[in-house]
Specification:
alpha/beta, binds GDP-alpha-D-glucose, 6-stranded parallel β-sheet, 18 strands, 10-stranded mixed β-sheet, about 20% strand
C-alpha cells in the first residue's frame, strides 16, 4: 500500500482483524478472516510499513504478539504489522454484540424495531472506542495518516482529533446510512455524528448514502452542503463523498483447477441451470424472502422443475445471538419444506450449505452458476455480486435494487427483494436471456469492475482525502 507522502505511514483502524490465531491440534495456527471489510483492505496492506489496529478476538491472538500487542501477518516476507486491541467479555458484549450489532446495525439498515437502545451498551461503546484510540496513539508519529473503518468505531475520529488536532484522519462507512426519521431514533445521535465529523474526510459506498448522511447533519442543526459535499457541526467539519468499494479482480481470474471443480459441482447438482446465492447469515440479506420467492418461482413456472436448482451458501455469523439462531432455524425449515414437497428422484430444488468457505473456494461455485441471485433487503455494497461477475464471461446477475452494488452494476436484472413475484419473473427472464446478450452485459459490467477495482478505490479515497485536507 502506498503512502500519501514519504513521511508517514498509514494506520488502518477497524474492529475486525484480517488474521486471527487459534489453536489447532495443540498448535497455534494463523487463519485469514473473511468479511467484506477485511477481504477488501488486506490486499492493500501487503509488503508495507503500514499498520493495522484491530480487536484481537482469536483464542491464541495474544500468544503471538509482542509487548505492544503487535505481530507481523501473514508472514515476514509479504507482511505488515497488525496491532491487537484486547477486550474483556463485558466490553465485547456491550460494544460489539450490544451497541454495534444490536443498535447501530439495525438502525443503519432501516430495521428500527429491532434496535436495542440500552444506555449501558452505549457507555461501553464509548469506552471501547477510547481503547482503540489509545492503541493508535501508542504508534502514531507526526506525519502518519489514520484511516478508520466502519460503524463500530464512529467516535474514534473525534477522540483522535482532540489528541491530534493536525493529524490527517479519515473514515469509511461500509454499511448503509438510513433516512433521518430512522437515524433520529438513536438517543445518542448527535454525539455519534459529531464523533464521525472529527475526520477530514468520510466515504460511503453510494451517492444516496452520502445524501442521507448530509441530511442527518442538517436535521441535527449542523450545516450540510449537498452540492459541495461538506458537513459541519459545532467545531467539526468533513468532506463526505461516495467511493464504491471495488474488488481485487486479479484474485478472481479463474484457474484450470477451479474450472474443473466447477464442472464437477455442476455434474453433482445434476441440473441444466444452476442459480447461486452466497450470504453471511443476517436478516438484512433477505434469505427467507428469497427462499419464498423460489417457491413462487416453481409455482408460477412449473416447467423449470427438474431443470433448475438453487444453491444457497450461508456463512455462519453472530451465532451467539438468539435472533440469528432463530433465523437459521426458520431458513432451514423453509428449505426443508420446499425440498420435501418438490424434490424428484435425483433432483433437489435447493442445495443448502451452512458453512464458511475460504474465498478462493467460492470461485468454483461462481463459475458453476448460470445465474447469481443476490437479493439483500438492503446492503452497503454486496461484494459477492461483484465477485460473481468478475469470475465469469457470461451468465446473469439478479441483484437487489437496494444493494449498493446496484448503483454501479446497472446491467444486472434489478429486483425488489420484498416482491416474490418480481424475483420469480426475473429468474424466468434470466434463464431465457440469449447467450450473446449475456456476454454483452458481462463485458460492460466487467469493464466497470476492472476500472473501479480495489486499487482504484484506495487511490481515489487517498486522493479525495488529501484534497479535503487542503480545503480545510
Ligand atoms: C459488509 C457490508 C459491504 C469468503 N467466504 C465466504 C464469504 N467470503 C467473502 C466474500 C466477500 C465477503 O466475504 C462478503 O462481503 P459482502 O459485501 O457480500 O457482505 P458483508 O460481509 O455483509 O460486508 C457490505 C462490505 O462490508 C464491504 O464494505 O459490501 O454491504 O454488509 O468478499 O468473498 N462470504 C460468504 N460466505 C463465505 O463462505 N457469505
Amino acid at each position: 500500500m502506498e503512502n500519501m507522502d514519504s513521511s508517514g505511514k498509514i494506520i488502518i483502524v477497524s474492529n475486525a482483524e484480517p488474521f486471527q490465531h487459534i489453536y489447532h491440534n495443540g498448535e497455534i495456527v494463523q487463519e485469514k478472516l473473511a468479511g467484506g471489510l477485511t477481504t477488501g483492505l488486506d490486499p492493500l496492506m501487503k509488503n508495507s510499513k503500514n499498520l493495522w489496529v484491530a480487536w484481537g478476538r482469536g483464542e491464541a491472538d495474544f500468544e503471538v504478539t509482542n509487548q505492544r500487542q503487535k505481530v507481523v501477518v501473514p508472514d515476514k516476507e509479504t507482511g505488515y504489522t497488525l496491532k491487537r486491541v484486547k477486550l474483556s467479555e463485558n466490553e465485547v458484549n456491550g460494544f460489539y454484540y450490544g451497541f454495534s450489532n444490536s443498535s447501530l446495525w439495525p438502525i443503519c439498515h432501516s430495521f428500527p424495531h429491532k434496535a436495542n437502545l440500552d444506555k449501558n451498551n452505549w457507555e461501553t461503546y464509548k469506552k471501547v472506542n477510547r481503547l482503540f484510540v489509545e492503541s493508535v496513539l501508542e504508534e502514531f508519529n507526526s506525519g502518519d495518516k489514520i484511516w478508520v473503518q466502519d460503524y463500530q468505531l464512529a467516535l474514534v475520529p473525534k477522540m483522535l482529533r482532540e489528541e491530534l488536532p493536525n493529524a490527517k484522519i479519515a473514515l469509511f462507512w461500509h454499511i448503509p446510512w438510513p433516512p433521518w426519521e430512522t437515524f433520529g431514533i438513536l438517543p445518542c445521535k448527535e454525539e455519534l455524528v459529531e464523533g464521525m465529523l472529527g475526520a477530514d474526510f468520510i466515504g460511503f459506498h453510494t451517492s444516496w448514502l452520502v445524501h442521507n448522511f448530509l441530511d442527518t447533519v442538517f436535521q441535527l442543526g449542523g450545516a450540510a452542503n449537498q452540492s459541495e459535499n461538506i458537513a459541519r457541526m459545532n467545531s467539526e467539519r468533513a468532506v463526505v463523498k461516495n467511493i464504491p468499494l471495488g474488488i481485487d479482480t486479479d484474485f478472481f481470474k479463474k484457474t484450470p483447477k477451479q474450472e474443473e471443480k466447477a464442472k464437477q459441482l455442476k455434474d453433482d447438482f445434476s441440473c441444466s441451470n444452476l442459480i447461486l446465492s452466497v450470504d453471511r447469515l443476517d436478516y438484512t440479506k433477505g434469505i427467507d424472502r428469497r427462499i419464498q420467492a423460489i417457491s413462487t418461482f416453481f409455482e408460477k413456472y412449473p416447467q423449470y422443475k427438474e431443470e433448475v436448482s438453487f444453491v444457497e451458501r450461508i456463512s455462519p455469523s453472530r451465532s451467539r445471538v438468539q435472533e440469528y439462531k432463530n433465523m437459521r432455524r426458520k431458513i432451514e425449515q423453509l428449505i426443508g419444506q420446499i425440498n420435501g414437497e418438490l424434490r424428484g428422484e435425483t433432483w433437489v430444488p435447493i442445495r443448502y450449505f451452512y458453512q464458511h468457505l475460504p474465498q478462493k473456494e467460492l470461485i468454483p461455485y461462481y463459475l458453476a452458476a448460470d445465474i447469481g441471485l443476490l437479493t439483500p433487503l438492503i446492503d452497503g455494497m454486496n461484494l459477492v455480486a461483484k465477485e460473481y461477475v468478475a469470475t465469469r464471461s457470461k451468465g446473469m446477475l439478479i441483484l437487489s435494487e437496494f444493494a449498493g452494488a446496484a448503483e454501479t452494476l446497472t446491467e444486472a436484472i434489478q429486483v425488489n427483494p420484498y416482491n416474490p413475484e418480481g424475483v420469480a419473473d426475473a429468474l424466468h427472464e434470466a434463464i431465457s436471456t440469449p447467450e450473446e446478450e449475456q456476454r454483452e452485459k458481462f463485458v460492460k459490467m466487467k469493464n466497470k469492475l476492472n476500472q473501479m477495482d480495489i486499487h482504484w478505490w484506495r487511490d481515489r479515497f487517498l486522493d479525495e482525502w488529501e484534497l479535503s485536507f487542503h480545503s480545510r
